[in-house]
């Protein structure tokens, strides 16, 4: 989508015009082969100068959500829209690492309209807020584009940014694989957790989130068990292969 002047954003910006529409988007987005979906979020506490950033994703062949998160520390209180922009930058850079050779689309979901607008309309050297993050975002998109040849309606479309101003904690009316937690909630949880670990020893940001937090912890525990089971199976297969190779070698030695 072209911005003012000759500079072009190699992507596409879409907007959910209402919270209800955003909720529908959040609930209908399901992982499919060939597309990487990213959900980003940020969280800070009161007057703290520490900000948690998180990105969540789930492949069509993954049984559970995956996430990556970090913490920023600034000299001054960071405005929320700038923190959200930093989260998008962080998420895209992680997404670049997660892309598979057969992926043909990367969709990132953000919940702040000003952030989507800023990325779309960014001009190098414009001196507006978040310039460094915008430059990094556009650079990441360009790096991905070098090895991809995606197009949509004649416009190179490496990254689609979608405004989703809604959280979909429950699976009523839709969901993801039968689980009650959507991608935006997953990113929100980890951004909040990473901010709170330092600020208030990990307490949830509000009691109204208790059930959501419990659901997520249950999913984390289940994922850990599945990961351990998968690792155990992999080790058993390796041991079986080594044992078979050893037996074959011994048999060959006996026949010589």
UniProtKB/TrEMBL annotation:
Keywords: Coiled coil. One of its GO terms (molecular function) is nucleic acid binding. Residues 221-251 form a coiled coil. SUPFAM superfamilies: Ribonuclease H-like. This is Uncharacterized protein. It comes from Lasiodiplodia hormozganensis.
